[in-house]
Amino acid sequence: MTATILLIEDNEKNRYLAAFILEKRGYRVLQAEDGQSGVALAHQLKPDLILLDIQLPGMDGYTVARQISGEPSLAHIPIVAVTSYAMPGDRESILAAGCRGYIEKPINPATFVGEVERHLPPHLHPGAQQP
Ligand code: MN
């Protein structure tokens, strides 16, 4: 079984790089370029994990995280913020909005998969033995 990761990111270059790295590792990657379509895709396709940019046009990442984590049918899906915010308090705000963790931008291609997989159960990692 291939785990599905939903990537919500408005910047095309960032989206392309993250999707490329994750697909190379063996994940199925769904992409949304704004918060509203990201929330809609989460409802339709129930991904195994969501990677969420915070600075998005229209609905920002905090709102996206609150909507998804507050929806009973989606609340189990881990949401990981991917953002360049580095102000004191931002991390707390991100966690308070319902994200499980935080990956700093720009992403480091050498460590990105490992950072993502900290938030995915081992049996969903590509190549894992099925129970
Ligand atoms: Mn952005």
Overview of this structure, please?
This protein is of the alpha/beta class and 131 residues long. A five-stranded parallel sheet has the order 2-1-3-4-5, with helices on both faces. The longest helix is centred in the first third of the chain and has 14 residues. The mean pLDDT is 94. The site of manganese (II) ion (MN) has 5 residues, from loops.
Report the principal-axis shape: globular
Q: Into which percentage range does the β-strand content fall? A: 15-25%
- Please state the CA-atom Rg, rounded to the nearest Å: 14 Å
Task: Count every helix, treating DSSP H or I runs of 4 or more residues as helices.
Answer: 5
Topology:
Elements: E1 4-8, H1 12-25, E2 28-32, H2 35-45, E3 49-52, H3 61-69, E4 79-83, H4 90-96, E5 101-104, H5 112-117
Parallel strand pairs: 1-2, 1-3, 3-4, 4-5
The structure holds manganese (II) ion.
Descriptive keywords:
single chain, alpha/beta, 5 helices, 18% strand, globular, binds manganese (II) ion
Task: Describe the structure concisely.
With 131 residues, this protein is of the alpha/beta class.
